[in-house]
Write a structure and sequence with these properties.
This protein has 210 residues and is an alpha/beta fold. The protein is built from 8 helices and 8 strands. It binds adenosine-5'-diphosphate (ADP).
Length: 210
């Protein structure tokens, strides 16, 4: 149904805290990212942006409320159409896999994408520990730009990149987003970045009732 398809990725009345006696970090949070929309999520450090990002990507389950993808819970099997890119690429790779295996786990990116991301062919034969954080991050971004990805959750993804690489990576990402009509949640403390790459900016503090 076209109507359902356009529902996008939704957090509905989401509440979350770490541990049974922790204070509520998120309460009554409602946020929808529609296909093709790039939503910037801003707010001071510690206000729960990364926590909400992980919940939307299905890495944490909300204690209250729900996350819906096109009106249904996230699929538990197969390739997840909602993919997350972290601030620290090291935490997202298996150090015992060579880069070629990591990159081509879900699909095989073409030469054009590798070139646009500034990925050298020779790096494919290396172990993750043999790349800089910025080089590794570019692999991880290319890895999630496959045709089955519909939503990207980006948590401070360009912090470790130099300014020129940052611009190049965002340009490639935005081109892929336009081409595939990706919905994106862009967690950032940089209002300048949010204004540059997002179609809409949401302050977590304004939508959080905790
Ligand atoms: P932000 O991304 O806005 O900086 P986070 O979502 O990372 O905020 O963190 C929100 C709050 O939850 C912070 O007070 C942080 O200390 C706490 N927190 C984050 N992760 C954990 C965890 N795994 N266990 C306990 N507390 C956590």
């Amino acid at each position: 149904m076209q109507g359902d398809r356009e529902k996008g990725l939704e957090a509905r009345d989401v509440g979350f805290r770490y541990g049974k006696n922790g204070s509520w970090i998120l309460k009554g949070v409602n946020l929808t990212v529609r296909p093709g929309e790039r939503v910037g999520l801003t707010g001071p450090s510690g206000c729960g942006k990364s926590t909400l990002a992980k919940i939307l990507a299905g890495y944490e389950s909300p204690l209250e409320g729900e996350v819906l993808y096109d009106g249904s819970p996230l699929p538990e099997k197969g390739y997840c159409p909602v993919q997350m890119i972290y601030q620290n690429p090291e935490q997202a790779v298996n150090p015992r896999w060579k880069m070629e295996g990591i990159l081509c786990e879900g699909w095989t990116p073409d030469a054009e994408l590798l070139r646009d991301m500034g990925i050298e062919r020779e790096w494919l034969k290396r172990w993750p520990a043999e790349l800089s954080g910025g080089e590794l991050q570019r692999f991880l971004i290319a890895r999630v730009l496959g045709p089955e990805t519909k939503f990207l959750i980006c948590d401070e993804i360009s912090t470790m990149l130099d300014v020129i690489t940052q611009a190049q990576v965002w340009e490639t990402l935005l081109r892929a987003a336009d081409r595939q009509r990706l919905g994106m949640l862009v967690v950032t403390h940089s209002t300048a970045l949010a204004k540059r790459v997002c179609t809409r900016i949401v302050s977590l503090q304004e939508i959080n009732q905790s």
